[in-house]
Amino acid sequence: MIDKDCLFCKILRGEIPCAKIYETAAVLAFLDIAPIRPGHALVIPKVHAPSLWELPADIGGDLVAALQVVGRAVREATGATGINVVMNNGASAGQLVLHAHFHVIPRVEGDGLSPWQGAPYADTMAMTRMAESIRIRI
Ligand code: 5GP
Ligand code: ZN
């Protein structure tokens, strides 16, 4: 349930302080110590799970509910007009802390934090093959 060496578990146990925003029986939200923009918050489950795949699926409702509450409050407090909810899974995706968490990042038009650029598939067949390759693994 809790990992003794995990940074976010230490925050959950109160061994490391945090700027707490919101808490329920299942979820804790606090400010990121190195925000992409002021108000950048983290929403974490109270159960230790290194990434998305170890999370108990039935915690999804609690996490979504918390993201809605925290996302709205961050938006209002910062004057943001949009919010990115981001979850990094794996080092190649930028995950540094191996306790599953969601970033809540306030956004305004022209803030320079444009998301990555999309590019179309070579053709419809390439897209169809990719969809099939994913579908057969579900
Ligand atoms: P990741 O890269 O794993 O998706 O995000 C981890 C986040 O945790 C980073 O944005 C980082 O700034 C934040 N972080 C790292 N250590 C601490 C800490 O001790 N306290 C808080 N509040 N945030 C932290
Ligand atoms: Zn943990």
From TrEMBL:
Active site: 101 (tele-amp-histidine intermediate)
SUPFAM superfamilies given in the database record: HIT-like
InterPro entries for the chain: HINT (IPR039384), Histidine_triad_HIT (IPR001310), HIT-like (IPR011146), HIT-like_sf (IPR036265)
Domain of life: Bacteria
Single GO MF descriptor: catalytic activity
Pfam families: HIT
Biological process annotations from GO: nucleotide metabolic process
Domain HIT, chain residue ranges per copy: 7-114
Motif Histidine triad motif: where in chain: 99-103
PANTHER family hit by this protein: ADENOSINE 5'-MONOPHOSPHORAMIDASE HNT1 (PTHR46648:SF1), HIT FAMILY PROTEIN 1 (PTHR46648)
Protein name per the record: HIT family protein
